[in-house]
Amino acid sequence: MTLLGKSISEIHKLLTSKETSATELAQAHLSYIEKSDHLTHAFLCLTKDLALKQATEIDKLISAKKELPPLAGIPLAVKDVLCVESYPATCGSKILEGFKPIYNATSVNLLFDAGAICVGKTNCDEFAMGSSNENSAYAKVTNPWNHNYVPGGSSGGSAASVAAGFATIALGTDTGGSVRQPASLCGVVGMKPTYGLVSRFGLIALASSLDHVGPFTRTVEDTIRTLAVMAKPDTHDSTSVPQKMRTANCDMVALLNDLPKITNLKNVKIGVIEELSGEGNEKSVQKALDLAIETLKTLGAKIDKVSLPKVKYALPVYYILNPAEASSNLARYDGVKYGARDKSAQDLLSMYLSTRQSFIGSEPKRRIMLGTYVLSSGYYDAYYKKAQRVRRLLTEEFNDIFKSYDLVICPTSPTTAFKFGDRTDDPLKMYMADVASIPADLAGLPAISIPCGFDENNMPIGLQFMAAPLADRKVLEAAYAFEKATDYTKFSPMLQKYESAKT
Amino acid sequence: MITKETVRHIAKLARLKLSAQEEDIYTEQLGKILDHVDALKEVDTEGVEPMSHALEISNIMREDEILPHPSQEKILSVAPQAERGFFRVPKIGE
């Protein structure tokens, strides 16, 4: 019997029926990763001791016949920008090489308390800046569907680890699409909840007003199960959504109970974003979108085209606000409090300069430069404030649409996975990869990417659902119904190859 | 358009020591990116309040009480250099 590639409820059954133990499960995943990750470079470090310790605790509960917590024994991979106490958190950067956080991120803590088993920290673009994982200072993650292609970014290691079957849940972060875009390119489910629904405490910041923690899983149900544990108010994060604002529309526990009742999308009104469909998309992607619209209609949804004219400004707004916030957040890497330091420097100023010069990579430097420029005196109003104003106009356009529609949809990414080196020479070309995912970050909307087809090279295509802030339940319900009605949820060939080589 | 002098000035503000090659690359790339974001100039934003957060929540306060926190020793344990309860840095002036 294989222990790999199981869903949360499948693992729960295997454990409660004593067909396997949490330790056996953890060992099976760790050994698969050890034997196969040289192909994907999805992990920056394995947390083997932690995994086995956590698994032992679960096995003790099982032998004492105690009730198991909701994620007991579930293999979890954590993006390297989230803190796991006593294990490295490099953010894919040399400047944090050797840094081991002294506490867990809240999201990580909640999953650990629910019984999840941490198998390792996943590779990502340096400080989560990138759309292809080519900006990691350590190794380029490859796409498990075809190792010649990028997995997307910045949470490429997390997306790849779920697509390969290394973990059932992987945590990622989404600032401009860094969960949804790699989910799309790797053929898995990736969700960015409403801003503030999941705590940012213990997430090493990129752009604080845009950063979201979100899960990758293979099925929508597993995403709901993860969020049911992880989406909680947190006094350690002042932007965490307070309990009183968490209404039925973002109640994941209730949604989990209601799942068997969701069989259609009757009376659900869906708008297809005109500005993000049509010619801007690759042919295969547009075809998959058209087909998805037909499926949604069959499920009973009412579908119209909707126009959001300000969407075309999302990318320029983002590439002012993100670098501005990043330049401020990355000022803390100065060789004093943590991480690397150029020890040869003779005085403080040259220590700052040479530490930052030697250990920060080219994309973070580019954003620090850009951010410092748009925040500098004389340019602050023309760039930074202007972008903040257009951000509001875009958000208001979305809010207006959500007065008449439950959801809006578009492809998660205008293209499928591209090849290594295709976009590295031109930052703007790389930034374009997130054109369809950035709007939801700017407006703080809940948004999910789920598999909706394959292109002519058998690379996955993703469909994105978005809803009004705090209506996370709506995107999950629609995604769940769509997933049940289609057959795109598949593992990359990696897992099958590994299993057949074993027997 | 952005000049190499501006790039040098910005690098100084950001505490980055750029190589000559980096100065050239960033002069060209920042120029291109700024040209791209200039598209925002055509949007009428008269009277629009700048938006700094996705949800309008502010001043979330908790009770002013001391909660458990990591020890000074633990915090300093991750520093490149520490001494007698302080972060240690190279000399600041003559």
The chain-level structural class of chain B is mainly alpha
Structure annotation, total helices of chain A: 17
SSE pattern of chain B: HHHEE
Largest inter-chain contact set:
A-B, 75 and 52 residues
The total beta strand count of chain A reads 11
Outline of this structure?
Chain A has 503 residues and is α/β, with parallel strands linked by helices. Chain A is 41% helix and 12% strand. Chain B has a domain at 4-41: Glu-tRNAGln amidotransferase C subunit, N-terminal domain (Histone, subunit A, Orthogonal Bundle).
List keywords for this structure.
heterodimer; A: 503 residues; alpha/beta; Amidase signature (AS) enzymes; eleven-stranded mixed sheet; B: 94 residues; mainly alpha; Histone, subunit A; two-stranded antiparallel ribbon; 3 helices
What features would you describe in this structure?
The complex is a heterodimer of chains A (503) and B (94). With 503 residues, chain A is of the alpha/beta class. Chain A has one domain: Amidase signature (AS) domain (Amidase signature (AS) enzymes). Chain A contains 17 helices and eleven strands. Chain A has helices at 8-16, 22-40, 48-63, 106-113, 156-164, 180-186, 220-230, 252-258, 283-298, 314-329, 348-359, 362-375, 380-404, 427-431, 438-443, 472-485, 493-502; strands spanning 43-46, 75-79, 117-122, 169-174, 189-192, 212-217, 269-273, 302-306, 407-411, 447-454, 460-466. Chain A has an eleven-stranded mixed β-sheet, sandwiched between helices. In chain A, strand 2, helix 4 and strand 3 (117-122) form a beta-alpha-beta unit. In chain A, helix 2 (22-40) runs antiparallel to helix 3 and helix 7 runs antiparallel to helix 8. The longest helix of chain A has 25 residues, at 380-404. The relative contact order of chain A is 0.14. Chain B has 94 residues and is mainly alpha-helical. Chain B has a domain at 4-41: Glu-tRNAGln amidotransferase C subunit, N-terminal domain (Histone, subunit A), CATH 1.10.20.60. In chain B, 35% of the residues lie in helices and 4% in strands. A two-stranded antiparallel sheet of chain B has the order 1-2. In chain B, a hairpin with a 2-residue loop joins strand 1 and strand 2. In chain B, helix 1 (4-13) crosses helix 2. The longest helix of chain B has 18 residues, at 20-37. Chain B is flat. The two termini of chain B are 40 Å apart. The model of chain B has no long low-confidence stretch (mean pLDDT 92).
